């Protein structure tokens, strides 16, 4: 099931980033009392009343400024609006309606998307009464006055947001079907790789980033195995592709990841792993998806002894948080190693669904602790009484301990590595949670 997208838009300095941080519960976006601090789109997961959704923070829309940066910010916001299920149009209740607000309102009316007019910086009942009717002029329905900074009326705002979510109409597949999301930056060869895997021209292949408009699901079988491959190559129609903007176009990849079992992350061998690659891979990791890294365009790399090993080491160094992901070097153009991809994906999916018997798991945990005792904190040492694996996809290990706060990240990494040494779990993240034994 893919999460709905909620886009936050508006002119500069109306408090969009503050509202973004309030909704997602973390201070992720930069907040400063200065226009145009937020330049690219930020993504995070929000939750309200058990409804999970993606929140997109955009830069300030300035439709009258055609400088390169402002034009890029405008395109980012337009793309976010295009992909969103709900748009939060944020205005400044203290400043009143500005000409730029009217321009943004005109843009939003043309989008034919549910728009919630959000009047921010209203931090008193007196001001709420004062501005209550001023913003009807924008023609976007009832304004909702809030103070993102002080969390006033943000619950009412989120009630309105989730009321616009449609029921999920994702196609249901057989439980044994492995759903693969093909993700990555534009123009790394995702569509070409999909075509090479399928052996037919199922999707458009073009060197222009963003040729494929929609994610395309293709069901196929190989032997006794069933797969669904989700191609997310396209972020925008070809006519709308603009220089600079495509590096931010990841919404479709994020939504495809949500409804997949295995994320096939495609990298460009001529560029290595970039910051944007790590952002996309990081989302798949955080969502607990199995992952395989396919380094495409390997035919363009000049070969020398052990180059694949050196290349893999560089990727591991740059993206240590996904060091469990198998790496394969392929060429969609020549077909090199393409047939091996599904074998690796199938193995990663098996590991993703693997469950360890409780007594065996506890033996491994006890041995790891005997080899390397937990460090003490203020005279107290972590004691692990019991371990169990209640869940798969991804494997979840719960440790019952004397004090969960004593399980530091470094020791959690040590235990996770010990589990991998004993059981593998190649291609899948492992989540470890500590609970106090009552």
Can you describe what's shown?
With 438 residues, the protein is α/β, with parallel strands linked by helices. It is 32% helix and 22% strand. It has 12 helices and 17 strands. It has helices at residues 16-24, 68-83, 99-111, 125-131, 154-162, 190-198, 251-258, 275-286, 307-318, 338-352, 358-371, 409-423; strands at residues 5-9, 42-48, 51-57, 86-92, 115-120, 144-145, 178-183, 216-222, 225-231, 262-268, 290-296, 327-329, 376-377, 380-381, 384-391, 396-401, 431-436. The strands form 4 sheets. It has a 6-stranded mixed sheet, sandwiched between helices. Helix 11 packs across helix 12. Residues 29-41, 201-214 and 233-248 have low confidence and may be disordered.
- Residue share in helices? 25-40%
Q: How would you sum up the major sheet?
A: 6 strands, mixed
Look at the structure and give the mean pLDDT.
83
Task: Note the run of SSEs as H and E.
Answer: EHEEHEHEHEHEHEEHEHEHEHHEEEEHE
The global form is globular
Alpha-beta classification: alpha/beta
Query: CA-to-CA gap between the ends?
Result: 35 Å
Low-confidence stretches: 29-41, 201-214, 233-248
**Number of helices, counting only DSSP H or I runs of 4 residues or more:** 12
